[in-house]
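Batch job 17 of 40 flagged for manual review because the log was empty.
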Amino acid sequence: MSSYTLYYWTACEKFWGRGIPIVLTLDSAGAKYEIKQADEAPSGVCFAVPIFSFPNGVTISQTTAILDILGETFGLNGATPEAKMMSKQYLLDLTDVFSELMSGKLSDEARADKWLTLLNSKLTKTFFLGDAPSTVDFYAIFVFEWIVKKGLAFDKYANLTKWWAAIKEVPAVKKMYSSGVPMIP
């Protein structure tokens, strides 16, 4: 195997979904990859998509695990040991935000405010880990697409609002948004 392979619903032809952060990471790194249908994934290795095969033949699933490895491989998870630690924290925080959003817990305004205030406070620069986009930012796009779809307003959080505008100007992100493929179903 000489490239990376993402296995996902409809091979990301009908929507990007959880493929968003993986594809953005690969595109930002200039990596060679292909996207295949979910049913083409190696059997008996993983339970749910996204499933991802690395050039060394290892296949894993779980979006945040894939992003952690790709971030380390391509230097997109922070430049310092501290930033790399925070990358892991932010990926898992965003997973919690997504889970709570989908379960309805964020319909409680106080709970939503706690999460959005926390995320807002983490944006002390343009992006979550500094002045350049990272796997955290790419994963946050997936989460914030759902936040927008579910009608959870975040416009009162200045740093999040600035980040949302800035991340959409990143070349790989612009390319994905202009692909004609919806971001989420």
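Reviewer: the log was empty due to a logging misconfiguration, but the result itself is present. The first strand starts at residue 4 and ends at 8. Unflagging and moving on to job 18.
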